[in-house]
Design brief:
By secondary structure, this protein is α+β, with helices and mostly antiparallel strands. The protein has one domain: NADH Oxidase (3-Layer(aba) Sandwich). Helices cover 36% and strands 14% of the residues. The chain has 5 helices and 6 strands; from the N terminus they run ααβαβαββαββ. Helix 2 packs across helix 4. The longest helix has 18 residues. The radius of gyration is 16 Å and the shape is globular. The structure holds flavin mononucleotide. The site of flavin mononucleotide (FMN) has 9 residues, from strand 4.
Length: 166
């Protein structure tokens, strides 16, 4: 049981090479269900998701982000977004949902990479998907059928663990 859980989690790697094949919609919906199963402070659940499957739009988005150019051949892009202003746990909740999404994608045999979005990148991405200025694009995640294999890794380091206090 324990090793199954660990295996599930460590299967998620950042995949940056894609075959160009489309990503089945059902797989995206399953991953969205996983995303929305994330914990959220006071159950605010600030998340919404823009799902892009149009090839030209995928290219445009991935080229607009300075570190997502690898994604031009992806089969989909997800942009988790929400109202950041006035909600202090926005980043925490959005990160939990994004990680859940990535875990599901990896375990469906697909690949993806979390590409970070900050204040400076908002105006690069927002106009391409019609996202209004009061909503914050939290991440840009190219998803596809993997054209590269990466082994599971835990990155476990005993020295980072402090049992019963520092
Ligand atoms: C907040 C955040 C932002 C990231 N931004 C990018 C990015 O812009 N481009 C990219 O190729 N990878 C990005 N990554 C992926 C990391 O490079 C990757 O997770 C790290 O190298 C560890 O590899 P792994 O995901 O295979 O375990 C980001 C990851 C996080 C958590």
């Amino acid at each position: 049981m324990t090793s199954e859980v660990l295996e599930f989690i460590t299967r998620r790697r950042s995949i940056r090479k894609f075959t160009g094949a489309p990503v089945p919609r059902e797989a995206l919906v399953t991953a969205l269900q996983a995303a929305m199963a994330a914990p959220s402070a006071n159950t605010v659940q600030p998340w919404e998701f823009i799902m892009v499957t149009d090839k030209e739009k995928i290219k445009e988005l991935c080229l607009a982000h300075p570190y997502a150019h690898f994604g031009v051949n992806a089969g989909a892009v997800v942009i988790p977004f929400g109202k950041k202003e006035g909600y202090k746990w926005f980043t925490h909740d959005m990160a939990a949902a994004t990680e859940n999404f990535l875990l599901a994608i990896a375990n469906l045999g697909l690949g993806a990479t979390w590409c970070g979005m900050d204040d400076a990148r908002q105006d690069l991405i927002r106009p391409l998907v019609g996202l209004p200025a009061d909503l914050y694009a939290f991440a840009l995640v190219p998803i596809g059928v993997p054209a590269e294999k990466k082994p599971p890794h835990t990155q476990y380091e005993e020295s980072k663990v402090h049992w019963e206090g520092y």
